[in-house]
Amino acid sequence: MPAQQKALFLQAKHGHFVVGTREVPAPAAGEVLVKVEATALNPVDWKIQKYGGFITDYPAVLGEDAAGIVEEVGEGVTSFKKGDRVIFQGRLDNDHATYQQYTLITAELVSKLPSQFSFDQGVTIPLGLSTAALGLYNVKSVDKSAALSPPWEEGGRGKYAATPIVVMGGSSAVGQFVLQLAKLSGFSPIITTASPRNAAQLTALGATHVLDRHLAPDVLSAEINIGYDVLMPGGKLLITLGDAVDESKKAEGRTVVNVLGMVQLPFNVAVGASLFSKLFGLLEEGAVKPLHFEVLPHGLKGIAGGLKRLENDQVSARKLVVHPQDAA
Ligand SMILES: NC(=O)c1ccc[n+]([C@@H]2O[C@H](COP(=O)([O-])OP(=O)(O)OC[C@H]3O[C@@H](n4cnc5c(N)ncnc54)[C@H](OP(=O)(O)O)[C@@H]3O)[C@@H](O)[C@H]2O)c1
User: Fold this and answer.
1) Residues 203, 219: one domain?
2) Ordered DSSP codes for 17-70
3) 133 and 253 share one domain
């Protein structure tokens, strides 16, 4: 293993992305060091560059999705060994982010990747699935989750049979995992909005009805208000962006829940660990499926252009994937 690695740095707040060199970090007790074979792009990274949130120390390494090979395990780790193929969600600090060739992760938040899936397929899963799962099933955090019973735990499969669910933006990465989890939970009907070209893809994941999202008002606040208006008494609106629901509309018994999809946050770890401990089995049986993807050329250098495409809404129903080991 080399002592140095290539990483993509956001040089300063609102600055540029530049490929540079940093040390390969050593795993602390309970952590594993992973050689990142594939990372996937997420909207939060262009938002960090543009708006400056989340990060205080620069230059900063971003990136929250990884698939790769365990290189070294820290003290006390028995569940993984060098050479295991794994997937996990990265964290926004330089030793744990994923836009680099090697990164660290707490072992309890790692899943092995079944051999029938490529790293490119595997890396489409962690952040999207985690966000969907935490929004629906974080029983430890009722103010940030619908706190339903997870379908990957005993007695959870099919538990919400005949309960309707509406998924706004079902072709987004998070939305596609909400559809899959809703199906596992038994929800029916599963109604979603997306561009019509993605209808078959979403039906295959569990949607029973795909509505053209362009038929609805396309400004965000209006769309969220529509989401709120379809809630039944006692229903919950889960949102991954700011709460734009008109205050005058908020009636008792219908709730807006702000989801925070970072699995490593203290109030998310328990459910995250439960999910990642079962993920290998869910993938093997086909209960959770990877998303469609497109591999970007030029390794880490390809990320900045990919993030621009995400920002410009030029990516539909697929993850953009990068290979950090490719020569930058
Ligand atoms: N709070 C959190 O922790 C958290 C976690 C993850 C993501 N997020 C946020 O959630 C959003 C989705 O993230 P993602 O990674 O799933 O995104 P993504 O996969 O990049 O989303 C792309 C999809 O969004 C759809 N879309 C674009 N504008 C839309 C609109 N106005 N209404 C409905 N759908 C729309 C497009 O659908 P069509 O191509 O079918 O038209 C496209 O397929 C982002 O804003 C992200 O920052 C928040």
Assistant:
1) yes
2) EEEEEEEPPPP-TTEEEEEEEEEE--HHHHHHHHH--S--SSSEE---EEEEEE
3) yes
Residue of 167, 171, 172 to test ligand 1 pocket, by largest number of atoms within 8 Å of CB: 172
307 C-alpha vs ligand 1 centroid, how far in Å?
13
Q: How many domains does the chain have?
A: 2
Q: Is 226's C-beta closer than 6 angstroms to any atom of ligand 1?
A: no
24 and 93 assigned to the same domain? yes
Looking at residue 288, its amino acid is V
Percent of the chain with pLDDT over 90: 83
What are the pLDDT digits (tens) for 177-202? 999 999 999 999 999 999 999 999 99
In the reported structure, the alpha carbon of residue 44 is separated from the centroid of ligand 1 by a whole-number distance in angstroms of 10
How far is the C-alpha of 221 from the C-alpha of 228, rounded, in Å? 11
Can you read off the two tokens belonging to residue 309?
């495409």
Question: What is the CB-side half-sphere exposure of residue 96 using CA atoms within 13 A?
Answer: 18
| 109 and 88 Cβ atoms separated by less than 8 Å | yes
Query: Cβ(44) to ligand 1 under 6 A?
Result: yes
Q: What is the pLDDT of residues 231-261, one digit of tens each?
A: 777 888 899 988 888 887 777 678 889 999 9
Question: For residue 217, what pLDDT band results from cuts at 50, 70 and 90?
Answer: low
Q: Which atom of ligand 1 is nearest to the CA of 42?
A: 15
Beta carbon of 171 within 6 Å of any ligand 1 atom: yes
Q: Which residues pair with 166 in a beta bridge?
A: 191
pLDDT at 224: 40
One domain for residues 137 and 254: yes
Backbone angles phi, psi at 5, to 5 degrees: -145, 165
Whether 130 is in the pocket of ligand 1, judged by its Cβ within 6 Å, is no
Phi-psi sector, 159: left (phi>0), alpha (psi -120 to 50), beta: alpha
